[in-house]
Amino acid sequence: MPRPRPKDLIPLLESIYSRLREQNPDRDEHWLLANTWLARYGSSEQAKEEGAAWTKFVAYKDTLQFSILETPKSIKALALFLVYKEWGEKAAARYADEYAQLYEKIYTCMSNHTFIDEYKKKNPQTWSENLVDDGSSYNLYWLLRGMEFRDEHPEKVKEVLRQMKLGDE
């Protein structure tokens, strides 16, 4: 997989996303973003080593936060995130202000525990397709349910984290 410069990676990802959106007008934002990610990284050496289930899980995990944004903000935020992932902090610094502006809605929703409500509104198809625990190690059901639990019971999450740090049972 060739590694384009950051200024070339952004339009490349936007182009993949646009093509997927045109070919799959019935799909929601999370599916489009995850499949953009898969188009870029799905045939990487690591993806081949880890397998299809792992690769799909990582694609959905890495794109989850951006899936509550409107188009084209969603793909732009993902592209800037992937510049950071591929090129590091120094290359991504050029885009930091723009990324911060795009990330503002995500941060607000996570802070006030409304992320999963926004997610369900924006991504009803992906949500409903993953409401079943298929028993696999890389299960989107638990990723989405974990976000739901975090938003609905923030006090319990804090208690669980506190117990983990203390080694309590």
Tell me briefly what this model is.
The protein is an all-alpha fold. It has eleven helices and no strands.
Features:
mainly alpha; 73% helix
Sheet-strand content, in percent, reads: under 5%
Report the count of strand segments.
0
Profile the largest sheet.
none
Instruction: Give the ordered list of helices and strands.
Output: HHHHHHHHHHH
Number of domains: 1
**What is the alpha-carbon Rg in Å?**
17 Å
Number of helices: 11
Please tell me the overall pLDDT.
Answer: 92
- What's the helical proportion of residues? over 70%
Backbone shape: globular
Low-confidence stretches: none
Instruction: Determine the structural class based on helices, strands and strand pairing.
Output: mainly alpha
Distance between the termini: 46 Å
Task: Explain how this protein is built.
By secondary structure, the protein is mostly helical. The protein has one domain (6-166). Helix content is 73%, strand content 0%. The chain is built from eleven helices and no strands. The protein has helices at 6-23, 29-41, 45-50, 52-63, 73-87, 89-92, 96-111, 115-122, 124-129, 140-152, 154-166. The chain is globular, with a radius of gyration of 17 Å. The model has no long low-confidence stretch (mean pLDDT 92).
SSE layout and pairings?
Elements: H1 6-23, H2 29-41, H3 45-50, H4 52-63, H5 73-87, H6 89-92, H7 96-111, H8 115-122, H9 124-129, H10 140-152, H11 154-166
